[in-house]
Amino acid sequence: MAKLYICEDEKSDELAEFSRLVKDWDGVAVVAKHDSPTGAWIFVAIHSLQLGMAGGGCRLKRYAKPIDGLRDALRLAAGMTQKWAIIGNAFGGGKSVIALSESTTDFDRPALFHRFGAVLNDLGGIYSTGEDLGTRPADMNALAEVTSYVHGVDSSSKPAIDSGPYTAVGVMAGMKTSLEHVLSSSSFKGITILIQGLGSVGGPLARMLAAAGATLLLADVDEARLHSFASELDATIVSGEKLFETECDLFAPCAIGGVITSDVAKRIPTKIICGAANNQLESDEVSAILHQRGVLFAPDYVVNAGGAIAVPMLENGMSEAAVYERLEGVGTTLREILADAASLNESPLLGAARRVNRVLSQSAAQNNPIDPADFISGNLTAYLPSRQPKG
Ligand code: NAI
Question: Which of 154, 177, 210, 233 could form a disulfide with 334 if both were Cys (CB 3.0 to 4.6 A apart)?
């Protein structure tokens, strides 16, 4: 059962609702902080400290209700535990979400990231962050002005490392392995790929796939970006309504999570699903539907690990060449998982989960666990549902 931490002066009816959700979560700790100037909620979810201090990106997104942002943070943090275990890095699973309300328009972005940085400082290093959906290198630079718990930024005035293009290289390696597995050839020539989302990851991915000879179908809610990529890459635009009805060899979700619902899984006209978005499946059970239909689902936390691989390597002064070599390894890891799953006639998601469990159960930290209480500042107090929020 995870603990919910709040700031001492927090007052909100929403805390009891948050606490109920957190109580049933299998993670370690969650911080909820209301950001008065913007009306946003800042959530930090720490799922596991078994392999080391938690690391994972920061998502900035508008949500209908704050609890939707918390739910996103909990699932994303669990995905990070799996991702670090798969790539063998000594980090625990964590993720943060800055949940803006749908009515928030203008706000001082660097100031918001400075306040988020203060929350990171209060966590004393048990969680450090980087880029994710809705955040960009400039936000990481703003964080670095107030905290050291941010990755991809050095002490010079250089822009922060953009993890998106590295993630794209890893996704492309995963796509090659998927094609090889399903079509017995890893060539992109004549292969039709539908990409949903042309942001930090989807944009560079689209450019690399076009250069490799794929036929591209593109979708994005940002009309200007969509049209610009379509004309640059001579690609066809697919509307949101036609997304899951359009035939393609490979569907690449590179925007938001939860897009493959059980209904979509039963009908999506593709052979492969392989993309960058975290938590693409509405639930793990959806992978069985895809498996029965013979649609290969490349587990998202395996193929989107490129940024998590590259940023720590670059921070440690390793060369771009060494980074690219390791990014190609995403394809090798996926190949092993697919072979293992095929030998047991089970979905690749189950194969990947078995590999994660093997790593976690062998971890040295099992006998020497990190206790969050040793790090979290007194500015954050554990919230108990039975206690009235102060006010
Ligand atoms: P981003 O914020 O740079 O781009 C997201 C793109 O998706 C934008 O162009 C946006 O307009 C579009 N979009 C949003 N909702 C959409 C919808 N419903 N339908 C179609 N398009 C939509 O985000 P980024 O960094 O490219 O991340 C994309 C996904 O990949 C996210 O799920 C993120 O968690 C995941 N990811 C990103 C990594 C990174 O290094 N940036 C690393 C691992 C995973």
Answer: 177
Q: Are 250 and 194 in contact (CB under 8 A)?
A: yes
CA–CA distance, 238 with 246 (Å, rounded to integer): 8
Tokens of 332: 């090798």
Give how far the C-alpha of residue 50 lies from the chain's centroid of Cα atoms, to the nearest Å: 19
Q: Is the entire prediction scored with pTM above 0.85?
A: yes
CA of 255 to the centre of ligand 1 (A): 4
Share of the chain above pLDDT 90, in %: 82
Alpha helices by DSSP H, the chain: 14-23, 66-87, 109-122, 137-144, 163-183, 202-211, 223-233, 262-267, 286-293, 300-303, 306-315, 320-343, 348-362
pLDDT score at 1: 67
- CA–CA gap between residue 154 and residue 141 (Å, rounded): 9
Mean pLDDT of the 204-230 span? 98
88 phi and psi angles, rounded to 5 deg = 75, 30
Ligand 1 atom showing the smallest separation from residue 275 Cα: 30
- Percent helix, strand, coil in the chain, to 5, is 45, 15, 40
Q: What is the rounded CA–CA span in Å between residue 279 and residue 76?
A: 7
Closest of 87, 82, 55, 84 to residue 330, by C-alpha: 87
Residues in contact with 324: Cβ distance below 8 Å, sequence separation at least 6, in sequence order: 169
Report the pLDDT value the prediction gives residue 64, as an integer from 0 to 100: 95
Using alpha carbons only, how large is the chain's radius of gyration in Å?
20
Query: Which one has a higher pLDDT value, 382 or 109?
Result: 109
Q: What is the pLDDT of residue 365?
A: 57
CA of 31 to the centre of ligand 1 (A): 24
Q: Is residue 95 among the annotated active site residues?
A: yes
Q: What is the pLDDT of residues 100-124, one digit of tens each?
A: 998 888 899 999 999 999 999 999 9
- The first and second tokens of residue 366, run together, are 């099992």
- Are 143 and 98 in contact by the 8 Å Cβ rule? The answer is no
The structure tokens 């089970």 sit at 346
Q: Which of 3, 83, 95, 176 is flagged as catalytic?
A: 95
Going from the C-alpha of 19 to that of each of 50, 59, 253, the distances in angstroms are 23, 21, 31
- Among 22-26, 119-123, 312-316, top mean pLDDT goes to 119-123
